[in-house]
Amino acid sequence: MDAALIIADACFDGERHRPEPTSILIEDGCITQMASGVLSTGTASTVARVPFAMPGLMEAHCHLFLDGDETDQAIRADHLRKPFEGLLATAHRSLEQLQAAGITAIRDAGDAHGVNTAIKTELTTSTAYAPDMLSAGLAIRRAKRYGAFLGVETTGLEDLPRVLAQVAPTADFIKIMLSGIIDFESGTVKGAPQFDVAEATLIQETAQRLGGRTAAHISGLDGLKVATEAGLNTIEHGFFMTREILAVMRDKQIAWVPTFMPVHFQWAYPEYCGWNEATVGQLRRILDNHDEHLVAAYDMGVPVVAGSDAGSYGSPHGRSLVEDLVLMSRTGAPLEKILASATSVPRGLWGLPSANLAVGAEANVLCLAGSPFRNVEYVRQPRALYHRGWRFGAPVAERRRETVAAAAS
Ligand SMILES: [Zn+2]
């Protein structure tokens, strides 16, 4: 039997911070013992003393086929013209980057090439390590509106049943492009929402009938009103949020995936996009509004889920989710809630296996070089990841029990 004992100076169990030393025994990929203090090494063949342990993270909004490290717009445009194999190779690299950041669950929010569907099939049939994965498959957009690279288009209400029948078989959730993107120079969202309430409601009812969920790409108040009235299950991005919209989200338990990173990048590195001072000011106002409403969302009881839109401009896979957590913590929202947004909350909402540190759960333990409750930036420093029977990275301190080493020699 394979057994590993992790002794963490402190941990976050998926719900709460436990500031005292905690021992976690993993046997054959499951947590079989967990206790305050230092357990005797018992049958463990590996003992790791680590500063901090928490559940593996979930990246709830990424696009595996896109290379978030690439900041040259011309190269990014060329990337979309690559053959399927080229995009698949990018997706494999994205998976490696996600794993290196301590991410054990991913949710791909759409691609027009079906790379996400191919990856999902690979992960569910492979004997190699596989994170938990949800995939939108093809997103749905209004004909000729924003989002061609993420999915298929529809002309509207009468055509929607045809498109939904096309999209549903490979969609764990149906992603709709409900608004365009933000015009950072004017600080507004371009154009009217892509779908009206009747269309959004048809999409929601169809998803529900098929036992699935919906996710809506939206920024701007008009789109937020359509999405919340139709009761779509998640708001992705949700820039220009208001308290009135949050109140409806709380009442209908609509989740919010705020994706700070792509906008933060444009504000932090305006030279990449050639933004002038006035545009940087607009970006700051947009981000300030986002900060304020994130705190309000937690206070009001809106389910918040961390996701970074990794793959999009300025948002590299893996690192961005961690940066999103740092940005979320800088709003002053409670860190326990923020870490739950990247662990227990999305897994609970979407029926994924629990990653909580608890006896009986499958092992899903991320060890960090320090406690984020002391300094949030430690989320950038993963040291080891245990998921089911797999272990990655080197714990800060590890020793093989002498008896095992002796028996093996
Ligand atoms: Zn996206």
What does this structure look like?
This protein is of the alpha/beta class and 409 residues long. The protein has 2 domains: 3-56 and 355-408, Urease, subunit C, domain 1 (Roll), CATH 2.30.40; 58-349, TIM Barrel. It contains 13 helices and 20 strands. The chain has helices at 73-79, 84-100, 115-125, 160-167, 197-209, 221-230, 243-252, 261-268, 277-300, 319-329, 335-341, 344-349, 402-408; strands spanning 3-12, 17-18, 22-27, 30-36, 46-55, 57-62, 103-108, 132-135, 139-142, 151-154, 173-177, 182-183, 188-189, 213-218, 234-237, 255-257, 364-368, 382-387, 390-392, 397-400. Strands 1, 2, 3, 4, 5, 17, 18, 19 and 20 form a 9-stranded mixed β-sheet that branches. The chain has a 4-stranded parallel β-sheet with strand order 11-14-15-16. Helix 5 (197-209) crosses helix 6 (221-230) and helix 8 runs antiparallel to helix 9. The longest helix is centred in the last third of the chain and has 24 residues, at 277-300. The chain is globular. The two termini are 18 Å apart. Residues 395-409 have low confidence and may be disordered. The structure holds zinc ion. Zinc ion binds at residues 61, 63, 109, 309, 312.
CATH fold-level topology of the largest domain: TIM Barrel
Taking the sheet with the most strands, its summary is: 9 strands, mixed
The CATH first-level class of the largest domain comes to Alpha Beta
What's the gyration radius in Å? 22 Å
Separation of the first and last Cα atoms: 18 Å
Domain tally: 2
Mean pLDDT: 93
What class, by secondary structure content? Answer: alpha/beta
Bound compounds: zinc ion
**What does the oligomeric state look like here?**
single chain
Tally of helical segments: 13
Strand segment tally: 20
Gross CATH architecture of the largest domain: Alpha-Beta Barrel
* Rough outline: globular
Percent in strands: 15-25%
Which stretches are poorly predicted, pLDDT < 50 over at least 5 residues?
395-409
The CATH superfamily of the largest domain bears the name: Metal-dependent hydrolases
Percent helix, as a range, is 25-40%
